Task: inverse folding
């Protein structure tokens, strides 16, 4: 049973699609230095790093927010039945994600907003499901909110090639066609307590999503970071970060902002509880799971 976090009057819980050993460190981080893992062994082993396999443990999950008026999902995992030959972990899945959502008290009809930090395969997959051979919106009453820069990028040639081929067509286009998509540019308020903040780099239109209620703050960080070690090495990009300098600047912004505001950071892929606090001392940062 996942714990429920409270940010002001908003209840937040994680619903997990999958969790397990993922990438080898020297693949995920081109600048990998094994001594950093040794320095932070207590934080990383065994929850976030599988020593037997020599791989990071990754979680793929959605964050479910219940506000006074709305049920909101942040990032929608990889989805079932998707054709992802270049991404074996996400290829032709058949996972009970909707059952787990139901266990968390959420029916597809009850979801008011689905917000995607970006449009990679593991962040927008459950936007749609396969019904009688067609991709249809999984959440029939939801508004799906994306950044316009992200939409512009993936609706072009980038959406048809490489490891993201097909994602736009099967997981984004159907919700555009159903009239359920809302594209936002720059800083934008969503509902009464969320705000999109552009954090380009990992992908061109990546956003962090800030939440504020009753004096409490949170940031949903998407793929600005993949593993806790990046708190200690904010200069480490993942192999999937498209614009290296922008990605580093966005990571630094996130860490500074989270430390200054005492925000709870809700990550997209950290294992353990997936959420934590950033503590700053001078030019360095520290991570505590909550
Ligand atoms: Zn991701």
Result:
């Amino acid at each position: 049973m996942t714990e429920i976090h409270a940010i002001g009057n908003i209840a937040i819980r994680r619903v997990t699609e999958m969790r397990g050993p993922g990438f080898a460190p020297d693949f995920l981080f081109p600048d990998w230095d094994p001594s950093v893992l040794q320095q932070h062994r207590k934080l990383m082993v065994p929850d976030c790093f599988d020593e037997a396999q020599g791989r990071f443990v990754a979680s793929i999950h959605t964050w479910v927010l219940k506000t006074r008026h709305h049920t909101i999902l942040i990032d929608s995992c990889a989805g079932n039945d998707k054709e992802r030959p270049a991404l074996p972990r996400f290829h032709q899945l058949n996972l009970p994600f909707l059952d787990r959502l139901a266990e968390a008290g959420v029916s597809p009809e009850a979801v008011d907003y689905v917000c995607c930090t970006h449009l990679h395969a593991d962040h927008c997959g459950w936007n749609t499901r396969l019904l009688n051979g067609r991709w249809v919106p999984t959440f029939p009453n939801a508004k799906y909110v994306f950044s316009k820069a992200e939409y512009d990028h993936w609706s072009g040639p980038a959406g048809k090639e490489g490891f993201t081929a097909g994602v736009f067509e099967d997981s984004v286009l159907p919700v555009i066609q159903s009239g359920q998509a809302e594209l936002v540019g720059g800083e934008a308020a969503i509902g009464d307590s969320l705000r999109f903040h552009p954090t380009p780099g990992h992908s061109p239109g990546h956003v962090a999503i800030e939440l504020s209620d009753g004096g409490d703050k949170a940031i949903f960080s998407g793929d600005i970071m993949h593993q806790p070690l990046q708190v200690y090495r904010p200069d480490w990009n993942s192999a999937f970060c498209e614009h290296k300098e922008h990605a580093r600047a966005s990571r630094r912004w996130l860490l500074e902002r989270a430390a200054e505001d005492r925000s709870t950071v809700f990550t997209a892929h950290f294992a353990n509880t997936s959420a934590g606090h950033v503590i700053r001392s001078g030019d360095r940062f520290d991570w505590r799971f909550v």
User: Anything to note?
Assistant: The first strand starts at residue 5 and ends at 7. The pocket of zinc ion is lined by residues 120, 122-123, 223, 268-269 (CB under 6 Å).
